[in-house]
Amino acid sequence: MSVDRDEGDLKQSSGTSTSAGRAAIDLRDLRKDYKEVQAVRGMNLEITSGEIVALLGPNGAGKTTTIDMILGLSQPSSGSVSVYGLRPREAIERGLVSAVLQTGGLLKDLTVRETAQYTASLFTRPRPVDEVLARAGISAIADRRVGKCSGGEQQRLRFAMALLPDPELLILDEPTTGMDVEGRRGFWGSIRQDAERGRTVLFATHYLEEADAYADRIILLRHGVVVADGTSSQVKALAAGRTVRATLPGVTEAELGTIPGADSIELRGDTVLIHANDSDAVARYLLTSTPAKDLEITARALEDAFIALTSDVTTQAGGSK
Predict the structure, then answer these.
(1) Taking the CB of residue 239, how many other CB atoms lie within 10 A of it?
(2) Tell me: the pLDDT tens digits for 38-84?
(3) Is residue 3 scored above 70 in pLDDT?
(4) Is the pTM of this model over 0.90?
(5) Fold for domain 242-299?
(6) Residue of 23, 156, 158, 296 with fewest CB within 10 Å of its CB?
């Protein structure tokens, strides 16, 4: 599934156009079974060179399994995986692909610089060590032992190591785990600069705001199947309706249950949040039949779309089913 960005809606397509004439990643009827569990079920997906793509989904959706197959760490039960027209292992051997994973790969007794230098020695034509340390924002801690680095600093070191072969495709699995807000902002600034130079980035994250802010395209998985594929605004649009926010002093939950047209209602002190397909009807009711004030109507957030498209439980006003 790909996005026709000229028309601004979601469409299924089998096109294979990329800037280099080949897709960065091409998955065809990809399946992965673990005995009775179908982790990935018939996935068809193409990622174009130069895109920043977020792979989202709840635990068990198939994100890590899909990434493992793209990296050649796991073999498909059926279907095919192509990376720049090559098998994953071939693409990695040619230095076309690097990955930043959540754990592993670091020796605690080495310094940050020594770790990068050792990794650089494994490649034929690596980028300069000082350059990648600067790109990752860790030049100031180059002489610090890895074991003394915070979790976020270690993630930045993994990022620097991944940049050494100057890959065309960078795969990130929860890349900002352990980073503070400033560190995350700086990290994504570096990623955006790399993408502007033509590097393709595929990342999995639980931070939905990161996908919303930095991804050109969002792919949403549920039970090993792609349930949405498009820009952030396109994916948000798949969660029908809008949110009406208003200040309603002294209101009770029992009174909230009488609001017509509400799909779900949240009460936060004197503030009420009402999700509805017909937000205009809800607004008219609040303004004519209640003392509501400071009323706002907004489109649903990415989190709303995420829950609507991936949850096995649909929340309704007054309960769930």
Answers:
(1) 20
(2) 999 999 999 999 899 999 999 999 999 999 999 999 999 999 999 99
(3) no
(4) no
(5) Alpha-Beta Plaits (3.30.70)
(6) 296
